[in-house]
Each structure stands twice: as structure tokens, then as C-alpha cells.
Write a structure and sequence with these properties.
With 101 residues, the chain is α+β, with helices and mostly antiparallel strands. The chain has four helices and four strands, in the order ββααββαα.
Length: 101
């Protein structure tokens, strides 16, 4: 393995089951870091790291944390790693199961 200190690092790659390397530009739409910082998943991750930043809501006299993360408690890493393979329908079904609907 080489350490990349120079050269082209503006790409991402994946390896398929046939060991073919698939590549793409990391930012083909030239999205600025300022715009990326507005993406809701970054806020959710920051809230998990810094729970004191989670907004609080008051409902019926009870204050609750209003974080944006969906949690699979007591399930281990595999339960989380699998979500990256979900298509839109699988993601929707998983959220509905989590919410009990």
C-alpha cells in the first residue's frame, strides 16, 4: 500500500466481487464544503458525538431530546453496516419497522 501525499486523490473507488475496480470523482458536481455542511446527516452525527447539542422539545409538560438519529439499540455493528446496502424501498420498510408501523 502506498501513502498518498501527492498525486490525484479526488476519486473514490469500490471493488466488485470480480476484483474489478470501479471509480468515480468524489465531487463531480463541485458541491462546496459550506453546502455539504448543511446536509442533515452531518448534524445527526454531530449530535451523536456531542449530545449536549441535541435540541430539546417540550411535549405535554415533558422535555425530550429531539435528535435526528434512528437507533438500533442492542444490535451490534452488523445491524448498522447492512443499512448501507438498502435501496429506497428497504430503507422505508426498515424505518416503518423501527417505528412500529
Amino acid at each position: 500500500y502506498e501513502i498518498l501525499c501527492d498525486g490525484n486523490t479526488n476519486f473514490t473507488y469500490g471493488l466488485d466481487p470480480n476484483y474489478l475496480v470501479w471509480m468515480s470523482d468524489t465531487n463531480p458536481w463541485n458541491t462546496s464544503l459550506k453546502e455539504v455542511a448543511k446536509y442533515p446527516h452531518l448534524k445527526t452525527i454531530r449530535e451523536a458525538i456531542y449530545p449536549q447539542t441535541v435540541p430539546k422539545w417540550k411535549m405535554q409538560g415533558v422535555t425530550v431530546a429531539a435528535d435526528m438519529g434512528l437507533r438500533k439499540m442492542g444490535r451490534g455493528v452488523d445491524a448498522i453496516a447492512i443499512v448501507e446496502t438498502y435501496d429506497v424501498a428497504e430503507s422505508t420498510e426498515a424505518v416503518q419497522r423501527l417505528m412500529g408501523t
